[in-house]
Amino acid sequence: MIILYVFLFFALAFILTKAADLTLESIKSISRVTGTKAFVLSALILSVATSLPELFVGITSALEGSSSLSLGNILGANITNILLVAGLSTVVAGGVVVHGEKIFHEFILAAFAGVLPLILLLDGTLGRVDGLILLVVYLAYTLSFFKKRFVEIGEHHLSGRMFFKFIKNAEEVEKKTDKSVGHLLVGIAALLFLSDLIVRVSTNIASSLSIPVFIVGLLLLSVGTTLPEMIVSFKSLKSHSDGIFFGNLLGSVIINSTLILGLVSVINPISVDVPRDYFLPGAVFVIASVVFCLFIRTKHFLSRHEAVILLLLYLIFIILEFL
Questions:
Q1: Residue 28: its H or E element
Q2: Which CATH number fits domain 39-163+210-322: 1.25.60.10, 3.40.190.10, 1.20.1420.30, 3.10.450.40?
Q3: What GO cellular-component annotations does this UniProt entry give (predicted)?
């Protein structure tokens, strides 16, 4: 049986890469037609889609009265995104170029979003008011993107042109993107479905090998729910789409920390029975954020050697969890 599970794992992983290809090509196609940067599309759309596993886990755990499960998953997923996903992807790619100040500013926002729930948890609970605060932060983040885009559209299309020409252009863009949007939705659905299957197969492998449930939760829940981000990151860097890589990665951290934890807290407030259980993940996230920020800020380039350091930090985090 274990051989069958291993075969299924690799078969699903292969199909998952094909789904990622379809998703990335759709994002790039929509970006070309609409004139919207791939980074923006990834931060707003792709990151939401790849964060759906965390959202499903969060809402389900909240409805079942186990909101703390979602909190642990989100903290682990954020650390996994910055250290494991970014580290592995960059090692494979050989390095990532950081284009412009926008990505750096986006990372500062992502780090703030990741730390905000930890600050709100200082009183031992993440209540409904805290959840509303997180949701307002996410709403402000989303509206800021749309505001910038509307300004760009206005400057490009309305300056010196009639309004009806702007409407006509919008209609043409809609027609051209219909097919790409369809492919994008199919690709995202496949990513989520296949990722869920891989997590289930991995859990069965762990059970067959009698691996403790704690290890399964620590390694498979956070890593498993970030599997879509990991596959998209690998594929985006392979096709030299650095904007998609950073947009998806940083957008996922922001969505995890604000939208998902906000919804979970509103549905069922989170109480931390043992604060020290969340101290280590919180401290590791802060350290990981500072290190990552220094790496991309100094040379506007994330090198393979720096990526190895990120992976070592992730390994240290896993080891410390068992001490």
A1: helix 2-34
A2: 1.20.1420.30
A3: plasma membrane
